[in-house]
Design a protein that fits this description.
about 280 residues; mainly beta; ten-stranded mixed beta sheet; about 0% helix
Length: about 280
């Protein structure tokens, strides 16, 4: 197997990223960690606004609850989404679905068939078996953790982090991660998270794969972040797909990958409004 695996990211309707590592455009339960952080009390915790209960359509959040939904472009310098990028120091590259040889967007909905994950705010799961050995930055991993804030990782250290690194790599933990849409999310208030392992992947039908899907996610400020998934293929490729890019299209989030030391990584986009929106 070549070290030049692909990282694929697929975005809303027409954008995908393939990382060699490739990234493609697309839309994508376990016990909590032994001592998850105590979830904070937030305004409106007992009522999710009806305007946030959408299905496949981007809607405006409830203005009463969402008083701070604007993305501050001055907070952190954004990284604009590119249709191709890399290689990083390890050899990963990415292509998105706008490239001639980029990935094809085929969203594999596992919201009903997958194992449901129930996470508090700023928390993560225990280790979940992938069902196969997965190569990632020279290491072989057979288990993974799912974080509540739109990222998954092979080490639980700080995987609960609500503050996204922009850009990747960043030595400050969490490290050894795959960031689907790393932001301050609120899965306990709306939507669902599910995962499923396949001996023969429904995407491509050529090898085993593991899928995690975040459905109808909300930001902590109660605006919609969308529906998205990551597909990890046994051969080492990663595909990110976005069925719904959310209100700001990833505007305050990070999408990319990073090694265990936080010294090598790739950023598809971060803190860039409409980075995941169709053009």
């Amino acid at each position: 197997m070549s070290r030049y695996d692909r990282f694929i990211v697929a975005a809303f309707l027409s954008v995908a990223v393939l990382v060699l590592l490739a990234v493609l455009p697309a839309t994508a339960s376990a016990a909590l960690a032994d001592e998850p952080p105590v979830p904070p009390v937030y305004p409106g915790a007992d009522r999710v606004p009806e305007s946030a209960r959408y299905g496949g359509a981007v809607i405006h959040p409830d203005e009463e609850l969402c008083k701070d939904c604007e993305v501050d472009p001055e907070a952190v310098a954004p990284v604009q989404a590119a249709t191709a990028g890399g290689p990083d120091a390890f050899g990963y590259t990415f292509l998105d679905s706008d490239e001639p040889n980029g990935p094809i967007y085929v969203f594999i909905d596992i919201s009903d068939s997958g194992t449901q994950v129930f996470l508090f705010d700023d928390s993560y799961t225990d280790a979940i078996p992938l069902g196969f050995d997965f190569p990632f930055y020279g290491e072989i991993r057979s288990e993974i953790h799912i974080g509540s804030n739109g990222l998954i990782g092979f080490a639980p250290d700080s995987l609960w982090s609500l503050s996204n690194s922009c850009p990747l790599p960043d030595e400050f933990p969490p490290n050894e991660i795959i960031a689907l849409q790393w932001d301050d999310l609120l899965p306990a208030a709306s939507g669902s998270i599910a995962y499923q392992s396949f001996g023969r992947c429904p995407y491509g039908e050529s090898e085993a794969c593991w899928i995690v899907q975040y459905t109808d996610m909300l930001h902590f400020n109660f605006y919609p972040v969308g529906t998205f998934q990551a597909i990890l293929f046994q051969g080492g490729d990663v595909l990110l797909q976005y069925a719904d890019p959310g209100l700001f299209g990833g505007g305050s989030a990070t999408m990319g990958i990073e090694n265990g030391a936080g010294t090598v990584g790739l950023t598809y986009a971060c803190n860039t409004e409409n980075a995941l929106a169709a053009e």
